[in-house]
Design brief:
The structure is a homodimer.
Chain A lengths: L1 H6 L11 H15 L10 H8 L3 H14 L2 E3 L5 E3 L4 H24 L5 H18 L2 H17 L4 H13 L1 H7 L5 H17 L3 H28 L1
Antiparallel strand pairs in A: 1-2
Chain A binds a DNA duplex through α4.
DNA sequence: CCGCTGTACTCGGTATCCCATATTATGCCT
DNA sequence: AGGCATAATATGGGATACCGAGTACAGCGG
């Protein structure tokens, strides 16, 4: 796995050694898991206890998450979990779409025969997750699918951006994949991307990738609409 | 200005109040200005003196710049100014191209008649900068051009990303705009973008915007090639 | 000439302190 | 009783001082 990552030029994250990286991961996870909900205040001194680290670390971590967009700091108050509105979510999906479509096209236009099989493997993981009802597995396999898409053509800058954006819409992703018929539609759309890549059809790969993200965005917007009606 | 910014949803940066924001701006500026060159170590305690702030601040700032990609921290050592290689630069130009082309298309497809004049104004600024030899003015006007492109269609997420990427290739930008004939080619390409927008031709706007970034990237790659020959 | 050792440097991390502000609780006066 | 002024609390912004560990380099000895 490591050698493979090195071969693709993709930065392999070595076992996070510094406390700060650990704390960063933990807090990010906690926010993603919903332990802290959007709008909740993130009190530095409380986090020190909960994370078991000093305020220095907590502050560095908060700053980092702030630049990731997961945390926002209001002037007179302090850091809170950044709320996500429909407009921002829409924009995030849009950028993701642009970048993932770009990557899909590049994959199609490269002549690396290992791409399609690797994507198929990830796709199989997604289908298996749906079949077994393991939604966590669906999410990680989906990430793997896109990771392959970017790393096979050595686009780690774009991949980093997509990753940054993805964490912000994490809970939306969890909901979109549970939507009615998404268990067949989603994989089908992704299979269409793989097909286009296999056919070396860059334009089609670009188009179907764009459509896939757009349909996920549509579902997300529907979720916002439903929520508002409450 | 504030009301306009609010209307466009574009984040207006209020006069940085916290010491941290000041220090962040100063250090970023220093790196961009070349006070610290790629590979230079950024010794925390030295920066404390030079910036006149405590280590707390310096560390938060370094963390922030790290997540911006301007600074990289090597495990056993410490923070250094992130070196920029041709591969990364290429990828940054590529992502910028994808996003700017997207914004150009959106501008063309919107029916906001204020877009083209605003872009023309920025373009005039660029031409004036070239005419007077004020390259700093060329750069800020170019940024203004793209800021308008994104803000007129309310894409501040994408704009933030483009901005983040742009600082990393700042010195390349300074060099590309000084390239032979870039003083006529560059503005001509940007005028083509405005023309396409005025004609409501989304596909053409997308294409010419892509081409403009690609030509800038080509020049940047040439700079890397020349540098290597030394 | 090469290898070892010790010292200086610096980072990651911690523990306190101080100050300003914002919120909340208290209490007094009308 | 109600409203306003005030005090107490909570918290963020910032500064210091300190410690342990790893790196780098200089000098010493073989």
């Amino acid at each position: 796995m490591d050698s493979k990552a090195a071969k693709t030029g993709m930065k392999v994250e070595r076992p996070a050694k510094t406390l700060r990286e650990l704390a960063l991961g933990n807090l990010r996870e906690a926010i993603l898991e919903g332990v802290f909900k959007p709008g909740d205040r993130l009190v530095e001194r409380d986090l020190c206890e909960q994370l078991g680290v000093s305020r220095t670390i907590v502050r560095e971590v908060l700053r980092h998450l702030e630049s990731e967009g997961l945390v926002s700091t209001q002037i007179g108050k302090g850091p809170i979990v950044a709320p996500l509105d429909a407009d921002i979510a829409q924009q995030i999906y849009e950028v993701r779409g642009a970048l993932e479509a770009m990557a899909a096209r590049l994959c199609a236009e490269s002549d690396d025969p290992t791409i399609a099989p690797a994507l198929d493997a990830a796709l199989a993981g997604i289908r298996k997750g749906y079949a077994t009802g393991d939604m966590g597995h669906v999410l990680t396999s989906t990430s793997e699918f896109y990771r392959v898409l970017f790393s096979k053509v050595n686009r780690h800058v774009a991949w980093d951006i997509v990753n940054m954006l993805t964490v912000r819409i994490n809970h939306l992703r969890s909901m979109t994949i549970k939507t009615d018929k998404r268990d067949v539609e989603g994989p089908a759309q992704m299979a269409a991307i793989v097909d286009a890549i296999r056919d070396r059809d860059g334009a089609r790969a670009y188009r179907v990738a764009t459509e896939h993200v757009a349909s996920a965005a549509d579902i997300a917007m529907q979720i916002f609409a439903d929520r508002e009606q409450t």
